[in-house]
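Whether sequence alone determines local backbone shape is best considered at the level of individual chains. Part of our work consisted of pairing the sequence of a single chain with a tokenised description of its backbone. This step matters because it turns folding into a mapping between discrete strings. For completeness, the protein is quoted in full, as a sequence line and a line of structure tokens:

_____
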Amino acid sequence: MSQNRPNPAGFCPRRSITCLALALLCSLLAGWTLPAATSAVAEHRATNAIVSAIPGGSLEANDRAGGHLLSRHVGKTPEQLRQRLASDSHISAASSFTDRAAADAAIGGALKSERLRIQSWLRGSEERLAFSYRHSNPVGISVSRGAASPRQAFRVRLVLVRDRTFEGGWRILTGYPEL
């Protein structure tokens, strides 16, 4: 039978969540911070703030309502982007966000930064709003027709449409990295 023995600090059994909870409580009472916990909390808050800018609370909700951002523009390889270019003669480039987290961050950041533009559009009568937003870091890759290799993209292009079924009256039709 296994016994819980104190660790070198002398008060917490091994493999016990109680140890972490006790350390966190002591640090809070003493006014200390645990760097890893503080970083994780800050990252969680930042992620929630970004995702809260996305109508319907998620990119999935927007795709289910008729969008195609996730299916066409997230996690694609350069070869998949070249295949898309070969099969669709109407586009001059194909692009993809690196992964889902990059898509959430790029789109959420663009929506938060362009909220005044979106509010102005909603006061008007246009059915769609398309705009680009430049980020300071790459958001994905883009393969242009005839290009030898993909290039890093720092901009995101968003196309929004009115949709009364979404809180706020609009949703994302599509979004993708662009050069």
Q: What stands out?
A: Confidence is low (pLDDT under 50) at residues 4-22, 24-51. The two ends are 63 Å apart (CA to CA). The first strand starts at residue 93 and ends at 97.
